[in-house]
Amino acid sequence: MKFLADRNLGKLAKWLRILGYDTVYDRENMGRDLLDRGSREGRVVLTRRKDMARRNYRGRMLVILSDDLPGQLQEVTAALGLTPDGSAYFTRCILCNEILLDVPREEAKPFVPPYIYETHRHFGRCPSCGRFYWPGTHLSGVGPRQHPEK
Predict the structure, then answer these.
(1) Whole-number pLDDT of residue 32
(2) Mean pLDDT over all residues of the chain?
(3) Could you tell me what percent of the chain has a pLDDT over 90?
(4) Using one digit for the tens of pLDDT, what is the confidence trace for 3-42?
(5) Cα 31 from Cα 3, distance rounded (Å)
(6) Residue 132 pairs with which residues in a beta bridge?
(7) Measuring CA to CA, how many Å separate 41 from each of 44, 80, 88?
(8) Is the confidence at residue 148, as pLDDT, over 50?
(9) Within 10 Å of residue 2's Cβ, how many Cβ atoms?
């Protein structure tokens, strides 16, 4: 499932990416432009604006009511019947939404702290922004029923 989050849902967009969902965060467009983009790209539009529900829109839209991130994640997963796949966690760049590429450990060495290089064997890199990622203790227990940090 693919999502398009409006500018009021940046933290939710980040956490959907962490869970492995293709999630575009649109800081610019609101109203009709946002809906047109969602329809064009086949994305579920996520918004906090209640007035959006009254608009004529053929695609899927979810108006998020919760003010806090854990509640927002629960709303999305419950409303859409999602069961996040643990194997997809941390497969996307949290900034760019691109799928991370596996990179050889040696390639990561100049870009990660020495301790991280010495204690980790697997690294990923965003093909768009170049940011490096590695598995951490946060990998265990992440899911929609958990309470992510704000």
Answers:
(1) 86
(2) 88
(3) 76
(4) 999 999 999 999 999 999 999 999 987 788 899 999 999 9
(5) 16
(6) 125
(7) 9, 18, 21
(8) no
(9) 14
Distance CA 48, CA 62 (A): 8
pTM, whole model, 2 decimals?
Answer: 0.84
Cβ contacts of residue 137 below 8 Å, gap of 6+? none
How far apart are the C-alpha atoms of 93 and 6, rounded to whole Å?
A: 18
89 vs 29, 102, 129, 144, CA distance in Å?
28, 14, 19, 11
At residue 145, the pLDDT reads 29
Could you tell me the end-to-end alpha-carbon distance of the chain, in angstroms, rounded to an integer?
24
| CA 24/CA 13 separation, integer angstroms | 7
Q: What is the largest CA-CA distance in the chain?
A: 55
DSSP per position, 47-96: ES-GGGGGS--SS-EEE---SSHHHHHHHHHHHHT----GGGTT-B-TTT
Reading the block at residue 6, the tokens are 């409006």
Asked whether residue 65 carries a pLDDT value surpassing 80, the answer given is yes
